[in-house]
UniProtKB/TrEMBL annotation, chain A:
Domain ABC transmembrane type-1 positions: 100-301
Primary subcellular site in the record, as a coarse category: membrane
Source organism per UniProt: Pseudonocardia ailaonensis
Designated name of the protein: ABC transporter permease
Family per similarity comment: Belongs to the binding-protein-dependent transport system permease family.
Subcellular location, record wording: Cell membrane
Residues spanning the membrane: 12-30, 106-127, 139-166, 178-198, 233-258, 278-301
Automatic annotation (TrEMBL), chain B:
Stretches assigned to the ABC transmembrane type-1 domain: 107-292
Keywords from the named record: Cell membrane, Membrane, Transmembrane, Transmembrane helix, Transport
Subcellular location(s) per record: Cell membrane
Transmembrane portions of the chain: 41-63, 105-130, 142-163, 169-185, 224-249, 269-291
Record-given protein name: ABC transporter permease
UniProt xrefs under Pfam families: BPD_transp_1 (PF00528)
Protein family: Belongs to the binding-protein-dependent transport system permease family.
TrEMBL record, chain C:
Superkingdom of this protein's organism: Bacteria
CDD domains for this protein: ABC_NikE_OppD_transporters
Boundaries of every ABC transporter domain copy: 18-269, 293-537
Source taxonomy: Bacteria, Bacillati, Actinomycetota, Actinomycetes, Pseudonocardiales
Protein name as annotated: ABC transporter ATP-binding protein
Length: 316, 303, 552
């Protein structure tokens, strides 16, 4: 078990380091001349003066060799220093942490929607004896993953804000303002969870050990919940880890649609002005969250399936 | 099916365990296809939708002869009607024409994205799965890292570095889904490479590159193709999102995502500006996903 | 033994009466009548075996009795009556809820494959106790205590420890004992055992069957489903033979074996490998020239996690003469398949030497390795897995010719037709895909492929163990014919001693990587020198029956 744990943590750290490297390559090497890119001001910003460009070059160490730049920046990042934003001059870490609280609210809301909706739908669809009901229930997730997220958000606004006047269309004030963004964020993820869980429940229910349980005289509901669900939970948990790790990415669109402040908006703004240090900071932060969530998921696996900690392939 | 065949054979002595049923002829196959489609009206509708979208992308004038950028201001913000199926926008431009002509840019971007992901990811996966050992290890670590950065953020980072425009957005989306293809291709390659029939081929003296060409690629093609079609739907969604955020083609060129972004300001009064392009995207993605599901063994299972 | 034979079943009250039972499966575009008009009776304390090949409907019949048919299967007619202390219950058409009270309580099930029939995420004790709790025979605390008792009774060593373990920590045989404990926990009068040992090694199989025998002494009746007539002969009072969904014959075991009335039963009895010694023992050919294969002191180690190694093959030496069939037998993990792969140079040995036709091929690479591919071929256990599903039969058979660039397209076609004919298949099959063929046909195609390059040596790795017995007999016959025609040399790998006795000139017994005993076949079977060999021979299903027959 300790070995399993150490191996997982080691992997997490390695992935994080590699993510840093990838984002460094993409953002600092790919443009050829990042300073010129940033100085152009991108989509929304103003171009910089030549003097300001020289100052930038000196500040970001472009006079030094590439490997030294990488080393310095990685060292700084290890100490929590992600550099400063070009556009605002603010500390990147501070900018991210400032934008985080409103984003966390809808992220948690979205996750709740995803878990409740996904699990409920999958359980109902696999439990029902009516073929038509099952088909209807299972058509819902494939419908939900086919809709553009931003469009769903806009349609929800149209119906609940402009049509029924039940909920606010924009802003971040109070609980009511959380409902629509959380729904928009959670729906596609819940659909994903539902699809995977329903499939693995079906697989589990076809396993010979379910026949054994039925031959004991165990009832349907008990077989569903006590025998199949725990076995089916692992693939669903994997997807949930992936979903939770991707919540931040989802907020990019959702916060734009609902004009909410937060990390997603910050990202859109940073990309808009090609603020490379800020974009890199956000990417690293997102992979940090992703790695963390998946570490937690990895730690739950052995609780659900005793074979995993022992390194037995969990295929049987 | 096999059980029946085995039974038929075991009931007979060897010499007469001959042919059990003639292989299906061409007419029989066509009948089977029609029967298959007849039971699946959803699939037929999906195929028609995809066909229409393809026509719109390559020959938009066939479906919408008018100029998508020409508007009659007097006719602005008209609701959908017999004359203007999808209504008109704030400049009086026909939304239907703009959606049809928008298909061209949106689909082009989607095709580029899927092609990038398929070629790059497919090669990585094939290499990792076939060569194995340290090549596999190192390539798959890179893939893991790509997976640990949420796709849309990776695309955004690439856009920050590359700049804006339809093609750049397409490449950014494509690279963000390289990891998916690499994983599926690797898993398939590995499964087939370790299969008994590949070992059998090797043990009768077939050279490794012949094995790769004759056994591994044809057998891996199916699942990868299914993924490619599925990815096509995902790419449409990702590209329209990025275009909605304003990183695609500059206005007034119509793109499905940017059409919705334009309509957003009139959400309270003119629902069709957002709803119609959105429904088009949804219908396209749904159809593509339905076809992907059909490709994923539905035909074989119905046999 | 004699007691069993002397007590006619009709004197005991009937426990299970199946009358005119029909079961059908709905499938895409129609239905399959899996069981048609089946009638049979199981008396209190009686063991009835249902014997049949795959697709005969024997498992479907058992599933219908316990109400566990797959979702697309239904009982379309007839009746199933279950007797007992609480009166007679009609089971066909019984509601799900009422059936639940029957399952586990009045009928226990021992399933087919113990490795997948226990819930991997629940502890053993909990899974045994669940039966008692479901039927209200124990509460949480007493269930745990009773579970340990039951595990002990099922012959599991250290039941207290086992109860706290998960299924993956137990061997296959131990898991089957757990499943027997589950089936018998609530003291049902009837046990249905569906191929209870076909996934286990022969010696383990015998011990499990012995344990099931002890249940009979406690008055439990058993419906034993098996493909192996030998098992039925050893363990049952009466045998029911099924074919094509119908019962073709039933009666006391001795009558069925000695005087089968039905043609199919006669064929089945004749084909059953364990029931009779072969009519003409195979005599080894006079050795001509040097042996084709010489193996000396062969060792193969596999690395295990934690810097340990597994010695899969441990100092094995033998020779195979030209035109000879040498068989290597052993249970799973004995190293017999690894040895075969080393001989073929499909794996690297750790040490030792392999000579093929006088040439050292232990480390052969490149050109020498490819030359060997022409002269030595392999036939696999699973004929389906060894054929590329996208290839036509012609592609499969001509693949070796293409690999060595032998002949043009037309010549390859002609050769393919010739090969297919030689394995007694019609040429029309050449355009088919493997999926359209039966198991026996597929294995014939694999044999045709192996013959394409006219090899000197053919290694057969469990070539018939995936096939039904009657098909098995046909494929073995074919292998013998081919050997006689072409002077082939076989290295025959099998776990099945009965099969080996039919085909091999000499037999080597392997255990834990070592070659325990290597003797001419008849000598080994009639006068085994090693204890382990004796144990293996005793475990052959049907051997009890033949030995009883001899003493009588």
């Amino acid at each position: 078990m300790t070995r399993y744990l150490l191996r997982r943590i080691g992997t997490a750290v390695a992935v994080l380091w590699a993510a840093y490297t990838v984002s460094f390559v993409v953002l600092w090497l790919l443009p050829g001349d990042p300073i010129t890119t940033m100085a152009s001001g991108g989509l929304d910003g103003e171009p910089l003066t030549p003097a300001a460009i020289e100052a930038l070059k000196a500040r970001y160490g472009f006079d030094k060799p590439l490997i030294a730049q990488y080393g310095t920046r990685l060292w700084d990042a290890l100490h929590g220093d992600l550099g400063t934003s070009i556009q605002t001059g603010q500390d990147v870490r501070g900018a991210i942490l400032d934008a985080l609280p409103p984003t966390l609210q809808i992220a948690v809301g979205g996750l709740l929607v995803a878990v409740v909706l996904g699990t409920g739908l999958a359980l109902a669809a696999t439990y029902t004896r009516f073929r038509w009901l099952r088909q209807v229930l299972m058509a819902l997730p494939s419908l939900a993953v086919s809709l553009p997220v931003f469009w769903v958000g806009l349609m929800l606004v149209q119906i609940f804000a402009f049509g029924l006047h039940l909920l606010p269309s924009v802003g971040a004030n109070g609980f009511k303002a959380l409902v629509l963004p959380s729904l928009t964020l959670g729906l596609p993820m819940g659909a994903l969870v539902a699809q995977v869980l329903a499939k693995s429940l079906d697989t589990a229910l076809d396993e010979p050990y379910v026949t054994t349980a039925r031959a004991k005289g165990v009832g349907r509901a008990a077989i569903h919940l006590r025998h199949a669900l725990q076995n089916a939970a692992i693939p669903a948990l994997t997807v949930l880890g992936y979903v939770a790790g991707n919540l931040l990415a989802g907020t990019v669109v959702v916060e734009t649609v609902f004009t909410r402040p937060g990390l997603g908006r910050l990202t859109v703004q940073a990309v808009g002005v090609q603020d490379i240090p800020l974009v890199q900071g956000i990417v690293i932060f997102a992979s940090f969250v992703f790695v963390l969530v998946n570490l937690v998921v990895d730690l739950i696996y052995p609780v659900l399936d005793p074979r995993i900690a022992k390194g037995v392939p969990a295929t049987a | 099916m096999t059980e029946l065949l085995i039974r038929a054979e075991s009931a007979e002595p060897v010499s007469s365990s001959v042919v059990l049923a003639e292989p299906p002829g061409r007419g029989e196959r066509l009948r089977r296809l029609l029967r298959f489609l007849g039971r699946r009206p959803g699939l037929v509708v999906s195929a028609v939708v995809v066909l229409l979208v393809l026509v719109a992308a390559f020959f938009p004038a066939v479906l919408a002869p008018g100029d998508p950028n020409l508007g009659v201001v007097a006719d602005k913000l008209r609701a959908p009607s017999g004359a203007q199926w999808f209504g008109t926008d704030y400049l009086g431009r026909d939304v239907y024409s703009r959606v049809v002509h928008g298909a061209s840019l949106s689909l082009q971007a989607t095709l580029i994205a899927v092609a990038v992901a398929l070629v790059v990811g497919g090669l990585i996966g094939l290499l990792a799965g076939f060569v194995g050992r340290w090549v596999d290890e190192s390539l798959m670590r890179v893939v893991d890292v790509l997976l640990s950065i949420p796709a849309i953020l990776l695309s955004l980072a690439l856009i920050t570095a590359l700049g804006y425009g339809t093609v750049k957005v397409a490449i950014a989306v494509g690279i963000a889904s390289v990891a998916n293809f690499a994983r599926v291709m690797r898993a398939e390659t590995l499964r087939i490479r370790q299969s008994t029939y590949v070992e059998a081929a090797r043990s009768v003296g077939t050279r490794w590159y012949v094995t790769l060409w004759r056994h591994v690629l044809p057998n891996a093609a199916g699942p990868v193709l299914v993924l490619a079609v599925l990815e096509f739907g995902l790419a449409i969604l990702a590209i329209s999102s990025l275009s909605f955020l304003g990183y695609g083609a500059p206005p007034p060129a119509p793109e499905w995502g940017s059409l919705i972004a334009e309509g957003r300001n009139y959400l309270a009064t003119s629902w069709w500006l957002c709803a119609m392009p959105g429904l088009t995207i949804a219908a396209t993605v749904l159809s593509v996903n339905r076809i992907s599901r059909a490709l994923d063994g539905e035909w074989r299972r119905a046999a | 033994m004699s007691e069993r034979a002397s007590e006619p079943s009709d004197l005991r009250p009937p426990l299970l009466e199946i009358e005119d039972l029909d079961v059908a499966y709905r499938i895409a575009g129609g239905r399959i009548d899996a069981v048609q008009g089946a009638s049979l009776t199981v008396a209190e304390g009686e063991v009835v075996a249902i014997v049949g090949e795959s697709g005969s409907g024997k498992s479907t019949l058992a599933q219908a009795v316990i109400g566990l048919l797959p979702a697309n299967g239904t009982v379309t007619g007839g009746s199933v009556r279950l007797g007992g202390a609480s009166g007679v219950t009609e089971l066909s058409g019984l509601g799900e809820k009422a059936f639940r009270a029957v399952r586990g309580r009045r009928i226990g099930l021992v399933p087919q494959d113990p490795t997948v029939s226990l819930n991997p995420v629940h502890k053993i004790g909990k899974q045994v106790g669940e039966v008692l709790r479901v039927h209200g025979l124990a509460d949480r605390r007493t269930a745990a205590i009773r579970a340990v008792e039951l595990l002990g009774k099922a012959g599991l060593p250290d039941p207290e420890i086992r109860a706290g373990q998960f299924p993956h920590e137990l061997s296959g045989g131990m898991r089957q004992r757990v499943l027997i404990a589950i089936a018998t926990a609530a003291n049902p009068r009837l046990i249905i055992a569906d191929e209870p040992t076909s996934a286990l090694d022969a010696t383990v199989q015998r011990r499990i069957l012995d344990h099931l025998d002890t249940l009979r002494e406690q008055g439990t009746a058993m419906l034993l489903i098996t493909h192996d007539l030998g098992v039925a002969a050893d363990r049952a009072d009466r045998v029911v033979v099924m074919s094509g969904g119908r019962i073709v014959e039933q009666g006391p075991v001795r009558r069925i074996l000695d005087d089968p009335a039905d043609a199919y039963t006669r064929r089945l009895v004749a084909a059953a490998p364990g029931l009779s010694a072969p009519a003409r023992p195979r005599v080894a050919p006079v050795p001509s020239g040097s042996p084709i294969v010489q193996v000396s002191d062969l060792v193969k180690e596999f690395p295990l996690p934690g810097r340990r190694t597994l010695r899969a093959v441990d100092g094995v030496s033998f020779e195979i003469g030209r035109g000879e069939t040498l068989a290597l037998v052993g249970e799973s993990g004995s190293g017999k398949s690894t040895t075969a792969r080393l001989v073929l140079r499909l794996a690297d040995p750790t040490s030792g030497e392999v000579r093929f036709d006088g040439t050292d091929i232990t480390r052969a690479k490149g050109g020498a390795w490819r030359d060997l591919r022409r002269r030595a071929q392999l036939i696999y256990q699973n004929p389906y897995a060894s054929l590329d599903p996208r290839f036509s039969v012609e592609d499969v058979v001509t693949e070796p010719l293409r690999a060595f660039g032998i002949g043009g397209r037309a010549e390859q076609r002609a050769r393919a037709a010739e090969l297919v004919e030689r394995v007694a298949l019609p040429a029309a099959l050449l355009e088919r895909k493997p999926v359209e063929l039966s198991g026996g046909q597929r294995q014939r195609i694999a044999i045709a492929r192996a013959l394409a390059l006219s090899p000197d040596l053919v290694v057969c790795d469990e070539p018939v163990s995936a096939l039904d017995v009657s098909v098995q007999a046909q494929v073995l016959e074919l292998l013998e014919e081919l050997q006689a025609e072409q002077g082939l040399t076989y290295l025959f790998i099998s776990h099945d001693l009965a099969v080996v006795r039919r085909i091999a000139h000499r037999v080597g017994v392997m255990r834990e990587g070592r070659l325990v005993e290597l003797r001419p076949t008849e000598e080994l079977f009639t006068d085994p020198a090693q204890d382990y060999t004796r144990e293996l021979l005793a475990a052959i299903a049907g051997s009890r029956r033949t030995s009883v027959g001899r003493t009588a």
